[in-house]
Structures are given as structure tokens and as C-alpha cells.
Amino acid sequence: MTSVPFINPMSIEGQRILKKNIDLDSIFEYNQDLVDTLTHIGEGILDDETKSPNSYGKLVLKRIEWYFREKNDPKFKISDYSYFFNEAIDKFDLVAFHLSSQAIAFRYNLNSRETKLFLESQQRIIEERLSRISNEIVENLINKILNELLSDSTYLNWKDILPLIRSKKILLKDLLLFNGEIILDEDEFEEKYHDRMDDWPYRRIKRAFNELVGYKTKELILTQLIIENTEEYLKNIKEKLQRIQIHPSIEKLSEEIAGLLDKLNKKYSKFYGESGIFSGEGEMTALSKDAFPPCANNIIEGVKSGNRNDAIVLFLTSFISYCRLNPQVFRGDVSTKISDFDPDLRITTDEILPIIYEAAKNAVPPLFEDQPQEKINIVSKLGFGMYDEIKLENEGQTKWYTPMSCDKIKLHLTNLCKPDKVCRKIGNPLSYYSYKRWLLKNKR
Question: In a 10 Å sphere around its CB, with 0-12 CB exposed, 13-18 middle and 19+ buried, how is residue 192 labelled?
Fold first, then answer.
């Protein structure tokens, strides 16, 4: 029987296992027990020692590497990381999860791209593990975990799973609701609807419940609840770190994670090039995220309501598009349009818009969820009229806006303006980008 902590590392049983096995002073030390377990599993690692983590610290990094590569690497093979889905690793992976949580909460903001990546990876690992368990076992396991997750709640309201509904992973019409309560338990189903099933045999009641609810719906809800608890866990860690000093090993682990993500971004990112890419004045090059000013990076990581629209639509849209296509625009008075630099609009659709839409998704709340019309405004600011998407035949109906100056950002987006030492020499974010890129090139 698959253990509960293998799916929900914050379970009561998981907390007991964690206390017995975690030792912060030794997370980077060679762990013979872990190596023996992985060797016994023998999946995807025996042909190359670099694929086999030999310490808790390296297991944490492999966890992150697995999900990042799955998302971005066309040559990714899940078999290289199949040990993550073998229950023999449950004790080690449980510790790795909690170490990751502490390191992520220490280093990154709760709305940052890196934190979202961690949460997505946890969701993905739950989904993959559940998919590898037989239907007979997984249904009992899901019921057991849900009972523990909901033990302190009188009931689960449909509003409690709004992220699933908004993402359309679950439709309201697919839920069995009773006065707003989601029915997930067979006994509760019989209790709520007993007046309609007085003369039904038990088999018919069970069959009706399985058809109306089914374990797949419960699996989605279970996963969502675990991720919500993980978010709360990160928040609690963040709050505790304001009162206590972080353990040196966790601080070191956070640096290792940051280094790994930087390396993976440079190798596999679809949008960003290597730091310091530069090929001559005014020429188009892949975006160098390391050369972005702090305000731009803050917007991409996620802005809160009140700043979302101006930050993403007015500033970031123009900044990213000019950085990628025409970073030297202020050196001449010639009026330009995007197709002068991107004739088939492939760069705009494949590289520029995804970054803008990523910032919109990372906003709190996500920009397009309550203001979908802002997609039209983004298209408009790129010079393609008031439409949902960019089309060459619409270009010129509106103006391709240039980015705000630093003075305007200080005035209109005050809380996003957190100057660094380069900012003091610069008056415009585009100038910052060109200058910082030049600095990185010469440093390299």
C-alpha cells in the first residue's frame, strides 16, 4: 500500500518521518542509505553517476532539474528521473521536499517565478505518482488523504477550489453540490440524498456515487488542497524567518538552487539568451534577463492589484518589445513599427508575448482572470489595433509605444522602482538594458 506521505508530505505521518530523518548539518554529506536505495531501484541512473544524487542537497537539486527540464527541454527523458516515482524513495523525498520549501521561502518572494515553479513541480510530482498507482489502490489512498486534509473542516465549499474552476480543470457542472458543499464521501452522499434513494439497493447507490463523483475529480481536488497547504507552509516559514536566523545549510542550499535555476534558464529557456549576449550596437539579440532593470524583473515576478495594469500593459509590454527588437530606439527620431524588425511576427508571438503573459499570470490576482480586455490593450500598445491577437494586416492602427522614462516609473509605479547602482547612471530602462548588457559582455 502506497504511504500517505509519498503523496502528501505535510501529512501527520510525514511530520513524524521528518523528525526522525532530518539533520540540517549533514544535508550536503554523502548519504550511503540514499545511494543504496537508488541503486536498488536501478531506474534511469545506473548508466551515469551524474544522474544519481548522493546527498539530500543533490536530491533537492535533482527535483528542481527534473521539472524544469520536463517543461523546457525537448530532449527530456522522464526515465532519467524515474526514481522520484518509486515509493522506495519516500523517506528521502519527504526530507528533500521540506528542505526545498525552507530554501525557497528563504530566498524568494511568495509570488516569484521561482516559488511558482516549486509549487508547480510539487503538483506535477503528485499527479505523476498517482497516475502510476493501480485504480483499486489509488481510490482508497485518495479517500484516506482527503479524510485527513478535511478533518478540521465541516465541509468543502465550491469556492474553496476556485483555482481549479478558473483553470477549467474542473467544471462546476461536473461537481456534486449540496447547498454549495462539494460531496466527496459516499456516506455523505447517501445522507444528503437519502430521501431520493429510499428503496435503492447498496450496489445502485455505490454505482451512482462513482458515476457522479469518481476518484478523478477527488484526485484533482486532493492535489489542489495539498498545493494550497504547501503555499501556506511557505508563508509560515517566511514569517518565522523574520524572528529566527536561518540555518547555514539552508542558506547554502538556497544559493545552490539559485545557481541551478540560472544555469537551466540559460540552457533551456525559450525566451532568454545567455547573460551578456551582445552583437553590436542596435542589433537584435536574444533577451538577456540579467540585464533587465529591477523594475522589469519585479513586474515579471508578479505585481499586486493596483499596479498590475500600468506595470504590465503600459510599461512591460513596450519595454520587452523594444529590448528584443529595437533597443536603440531613442538614438534616432525615425518612426518604426514591429514588422520592420520582425517581418513574420514570429519573434513577437514566440518570445515577446510569452514574457508579458507570464507577468500577467504571476500578478496577484492574475491580470486576465478579472480583466481579460487587457489582452486587447497589450496588442494595441504593440501597434496592432484593438484586437485579441496581433495580425500583420492590423499593424499601424495604433502606435507602438516606447517605454516610460525612469522619472515616470518613479511617479506612477513607485513601489516597483527599487534602484540598484546602475540605475543611478541611467534615465530610461532601455538605456539601463543596453548599458548593463555591455557591462556583462565586458565582464565575461
Answer: middle
Residue-level pLDDT at 279: 38
> Per the omega criterion (within 30 degrees of 0), is the bond before 294 cis?
no
Compute the distance between CA of residue 65 and CA of residue 261 in angstroms, rounded to an integer.
8
Cα of 122 vs its chain's centroid, Å: 10
Q: Where are the domains of the chain?
A: 4-150+217-262, 271-443
The per-residue pLDDT for range 314-360, each reduced to its tens digit, is 999 999 999 999 888 877 655 578 998 889 998 999 889 989 998 99
> Phi/psi at 421 (nearest 5 deg)?
-65, -30
Q: What is the mean pLDDT of the chain?
A: 85
At CA 21, angle to CA 19 and CA 27, rounded to 5?
115
| DSSP letter (8 states) at residue 181 | E
Q: Quick one: which of 15, 106, 16 has its CA closest to 60?
A: 106
For 304, the 3-state DSSP assignment is strand
Cβ neighbors of 57 (< 8 A, separation 6 or more) are 27, 28, 99, 249, 252, 253, 256
CA torsion, points 13, 19, 24, 30, in degrees to nearest 10?
Answer: -70
Question: Which residue, 85, 97, 50, is CA-closest to 253?
Answer: 97
- Candidates 205, 149, 157; CA nearest to 183 is 157
Q: What pLDDT is stored for residue 335 in this prediction?
A: 58
- Summarised one tens digit per residue, pLDDT across range 78-97 is 888 989 999 999 999 999 99
State how far the Cα of 314 lies from the Cα of 311, in Å rounded to an integer. 6
Distances (CA, A) of 249 to 100, 230, 391: 12, 21, 52
Sign of the CA dihedral running 108, 113, 117, 119: positive
Q: Which fold has domain 4-150+217-262?
A: Transcription Elongation Factor S-II; Chain A (1.20.930)
Cα 61 from Cα 84, distance rounded (Å): 12
